[in-house]
Amino acid sequence: MNPFVDTQKRSIELPFGCKDLFDTLANAPREPLSKDRWKLLNGLRDTERYLAGALLAPAALSYLDLGLTHTPHRLQVVPIRGELCILLFIDGNDKGRLLRIRKFFRDAGISSIVDVMGNVSVIGTTSTRILIFPLSVVAPDAAELITRVLREGFETPEEAHLYLSSSEKSIT
Question: Which CATH class for the 41-169 domain?
Answer without folding.
Answer: alpha beta
